[in-house]
Amino acid sequence: MKFFKILTPGFRTKLNLPHHFCKKAMGDFSTEAVVLTRSGKWMIKCGNKRGRFYFHGNEWIKFVNRHELEEGCFVLLEHQGSFLFHASIFDASACEKLEFQSAVSEPTSDDETSGATANPTPRRRFANPTFRRILKAGSGCDVENIDNSRLYIPTKIWRPNNLQHKTKAILRISGLETKEWKAKLAFYPDHVYGRGRLLVKGGWYEFVSANNIKKGHNCAFEIIMDASEFGYSDKSIIITVTK
Q1: Whether pLDDT at 66 is above 80
Q2: Which of 77, 108, 139, 180 could lock onto 112 through a cystine, CB 3.0 to 4.6 A?
Q3: DSSP state of 194
């Protein structure tokens, strides 16, 4: 069965599949879909809410970013059975997209590959959103600014990934991922200019203090957008800091 989905607001974190397809494919439902595109094979989580299927999870977000999907684009999906799909991507001009962002392939051990096909190919690992920032006063690096300690997430990071809906952050230092600090995310919408701000608060000061991060440090930040894969709630993100 073939069907297409026009991408509308909210698609970056969740893509609902057509109701008619859900009814026809009820017996084939799987919690993980295999989606094949020109860029490779994708293992995407699939949810089922009262018989309505949807793509979601970190791999779906990576799929969206890798294929540079925007509102108005549409995805043509052909279901081959057993929740294996062939997908073609079309932009808002109705022309098929043939080139996508590059990605680095990394081999994995046999126990990490999917058993969905007889000869599974190595899964690809795609870069998480990153940004770099020189910490200033007010970032929790001065004793006088404890009450105002916060970290701003750049708009170019939170907006395309819909991070304004997240409420918690797990903070880590690169190379010491076994130790974590919990913080809160706070989103402040700007109804006048339509910009808004996303801040890491409520735990950020404890994190920078414990790790001797000071004013003037040039830090790199990597965000894992779906912390549920690591046992946290789907309202959480993981931020790894390299100082």
Answers
A1: yes
A2: 108
A3: S
Backbone angles phi, psi at 147, to 5 degrees: -70, -25
Check: CB of residue 204 under 8 Å from CB of residue 183: yes
Report CA 168 to chain centroid distance, whole Å. 14
Distance CA 17, CA 120 (A): 25
User: What's the pLDDT band for 115 if we cut at 50, 70, 90?
Assistant: very low
Q: Which amino acid is at 39?
A: S
User: What are the contacts of 94-100 at 24+ separation with CB within 8 A?
Assistant: 97/67, 97/68, 97/73, 98/38, 100/37, 100/38, 100/39, 100/66, 100/67, 100/68
Per the CB < 8 A criterion, the answer to whether 213 and 141 are in contact is: yes
Would you give the DSSP letter of residue 207?
H
- Work out the average pLDDT over 45-54: 92
Cα separation, 137 vs 139, whole angstroms? 5
Distance between CA atoms of 93 and 167, rounded to whole angstroms?
36
pLDDT at 86: 92
